[in-house]
Amino acid sequence: MSEPVGIRVEGVHFGYPGRPVLRGVDVAVEPGELTALVGLNGCGKSTLLRIVAGLLRPGEGRVLVGGHDLARRSRRATARHVALLHQSAPAVPGMTVRQLVRQGRYAARGPLGMLREGDDAVVRRALDDVGVAAWAERPVDSLSGGERQRVRLAMALAQDTRVLLLDEPTTYLDLHHQLDVLQTVVRLREERGLTVVMVLHDLAHAARFAERIVALRDGGVVADGAPKEVVTPGFLADVLRVAGRVGRDPEGDWPVCYPDHPLPSSK
């Protein structure tokens, strides 16, 4: 197993004409760490993830993965080091699970390599690690939402990178499948030595599964630390705009939030 790599986001600005999104973001993710990005809709979480994946270029600042500046790498070269699981992806009618997972090998194999029939060892391992090998010949569009998300996770793993980025991986899933996906990510991080950054809307999941929480508001970092340190009633008010209380899980000792009511918009 290769050593995990770290991520450094240094002074990153990004925006569109008349609409700044990120304003001088600094984040350092240690090798092998599992970090959750949280905040209200529109605060820049998904944009930051796409910049770290090399899909967007910052207007100012830089991103380093394993010490290498992404500005000096092509998108395909970056995809050999960073895998991104998007919020959603359109189903391709008739595509099987095996065919979809094989798409994760594009960065490594290239267009000509993708024409070759058969799986390589990386695809087989991805199917096995996520527990979807038995579905390999099933059409993806015949799967449930939770099953499909596991297959998409296998596709991301097939990129065979040291960094895994997940943009709201539990969106639209019921609680059973939310926990299934998150526990699978935690297990794979340990087994594969991955550095993982997840955008999560559910603060309860972030507080339970992440080692660290980074909160964004108005395009900047407003909280950064271990869940026990940063998740407080003030955090709920300042970051998520809700009044509430914070307790502790009696078994795991992670923070448990009890939101009471929304607060007026700060704008």
Characterize the main sheet.
6 strands, mixed
CATH superfamily of the largest domain: P-loop containing nucleotide triphosphate hydrolases
- Give the helix proportion (percent range): 25-40%
Uncertain spans, ≥5 residues at pLDDT below 50? none
Radius of gyration: 19 Å
Tell me the overall shape. globular
Strand content: 25-35%
State the order of secondary-structure elements, H for helix, E for strand.
EEEHEEHEHHHHEHEHEEHHEE
Give the CATH topology of the largest domain: Rossmann fold
Number of helices: 10
Overall number of domains: 2
Counted beta strands: 12
Q: Enumerate the strands of the largest sheet in spatial order, edge to edge or round the barrel.
A: 6-7-8-3-9-10
| Mean pLDDT level | 92
